[in-house]
Amino acid sequence: MKKRASHVDRPLALLVFVLVVCGALVFSSAAFGLLARGFGNITSVVFNHLILGIGIGVIALVVTSNIDYRRWRRFAPYIFVLALAATALVFVPQLGIEHGGGRRWIDLFGMSFQPSEALKLGAIIMAAAYFVAIRSNIQSLKYGLGGFLGIIAIPAVLLVLQPDIGTLGIITASVFAIFISSGAPWRHIFIVLCIVPLALGILMLYRPYMRDRVMTFFYPSQNQQAEGYQIKQSLIAIGSGGLTGRGFGQGVQKFTYLPEPMGDSIFAVAAEELGFLGGISIIFLFLAFTLRGFAVAAHTPDMFGGLLAVGISTYLGSEALINIAAMLGMAPLTGIPLTFVSQGGSAMLVSLASAGILLSVSRHSTKR
């Protein structure tokens, strides 16, 4: 094994820094929109995001970037079980919080936390550790495909019951990327690609809101005052930004009709104020981050580090790109946040901790 690198991957660290700083600025601008609407809880929302999310998240990033990533392998099953248990707590009366038709948060000492965010990272660590452990049996239907389905099964049950299909999609994509990278045979990959649309079809039969979102995606001109309202207002905001935008902080839609300007729709706020050039720059930053993460994975000295880097890069990158695609009308609305930008202290905390683990992996890169 080559000598350990003394520093984290600097381009990757720079991309994380730029995304977090720019994200904080965009979030602050979006927050003024709800303040002007008379949103009464704005102070606690901003505090949770900027102080608990970014503040503690940066501390978590520094800590995890300095922990040898190989230590996570030993504790993978415990982390995964703990994340599953925390996610199940949302169903406990007086502890779980229901909002917007979903039961996804728990209230601890007056602060809300979304445990499914931690489940994303827990599933990635578990999948990386598992496929390293059974690498000699990856071609086996029992240990290969069976292991993949086993890791996904319990999170799927918990997240469908909440419901939180967006988070389930991110977990599935991340674990699937790890599964492929571990050397899964093509026949197993093909089986998964057949199972996923079948499972989505079944879910749409029992979850009408999913069917409505898919129908809105294919027929956006229908129900513009109901299911199609958010995407309509998002496209208006993005289109009104033109080439260079209205100017930072000068967006109009966040003050009026744009739903969730600090959450799902925050990319629309950014595109209106920064224009086409600003929107493209945000997309480029996330693409560069994801590709740099994959480059780190390709130069790790061991399989666990490579799979861990692939999973984390897929998680953080796909989350951002799916959110942006939904705001552009290129994918159905999922409720997935924009990584490092959207409102959510727990999402920001886990995202930054995950980025720290990715930076830790980069310390051991064999590429000079």
UniProtKB/TrEMBL annotation:
Keywords in alphabetical order: Cell shape, Glycosyltransferase, Membrane, Peptidoglycan synthesis, Transferase, Transmembrane, Transmembrane helix
Chain ranges passing through the membrane: 12-36, 42-63, 75-97, 117-134, 141-159, 165-182, 189-209, 274-295, 307-328, 340-361
GO biological process: cell division; peptidoglycan biosynthetic process; regulation of cell shape
Matches recorded under PANTHER family: CELL CYCLE PROTEIN, PEPTIDOGLYCAN GLYCOSYLTRANSFERASE FTSW-RELATED
Entries under Pfam families matching the protein: FTSW_RODA_SPOVE (PF01098)
Bilayer topology: Multi-pass membrane protein
Native organism: Candidatus Kaiserbacteria bacterium RIFCSPHIGHO2_12_FULL_53_13
EC primary class: transferase
Catalytic reactions on record: [GlcNAc-(1->4)-Mur2Ac(oyl-L-Ala-gamma-D-Glu-L-Lys-D-Ala-D-Ala)](n)-di-trans,octa-cis-undecaprenyl diphosphate + beta-D-GlcNAc-(1->4)-Mur2Ac(oyl-L-Ala-gamma-D-Glu-L-Lys-D-Ala-D-Ala)-di-trans,octa-cis-undecaprenyl diphosphate = [GlcNAc-(1->4)-Mur2Ac(oyl-L-Ala-gamma-D-Glu-L-Lys-D-Ala-D-Ala)](n+1)-di-trans,octa-cis-undecaprenyl diphosphate + di-trans,octa-cis-undecaprenyl diphosphate + H(+)
Single Gene Ontology MF annotation: peptidoglycan glycosyltransferase activity
EC number(s) given by UniProt: 2.4.99.28
Subcellular location: Membrane
Cellular component aspect of the GO annotation: cell division site; plasma membrane
Protein name: Probable peptidoglycan glycosyltransferase FtsW
Family membership: Belongs to the SEDS family. FtsW subfamily.
